[in-house]
Amino acid sequence: MDISIVIPLLNEEESLEELNQRLHSELKKTGKEYEIIFIDDGSTDGSFEKLLRLREKHPQIRLLQFNKNFGKSAALSEGFKMARGEIVITMDADLQDDPAEIHNLIREIEGGLELVSGWKKERHDPLNKTIPSRFF
Questions:
Q1: Domain count of the fold of the chain
Q2: Is this model's pTM higher than 0.85 or not?
Q3: Torsion sign, CA atoms 131, 78, 38, 84
Q4: CATH number reported for the structural domain that contains residue 62 in this entry
């Protein structure tokens, strides 16, 4: 396995289809063998059911479902344990991380770097995320 994409999620049913389509589109361009690992961190909105349907069409998808919310760190930790790829990339399920950037991350790692981190210069978070974050 060349690439593992690890994606923790909580109540992201609405973004999963687009995320899945964009991920497969970008990963196929690499010509590498890949897997996409979704870790459902106790969603209550039908996210896991949507992932089950997507997995029927895409055998590269692997799933793990927590029975309650344990937090992003726990979800990532379990995703890392599941990952079989030589390169492991983490992404958020809300499309704030652009799948089109995957090739840049891979290029840097294949160029000899052991760790690559990206960040957004400008985020486009919805109000229900930006307003509470201003209090912390």
A1: 1
A2: yes
A3: positive
A4: 3.90.550.10
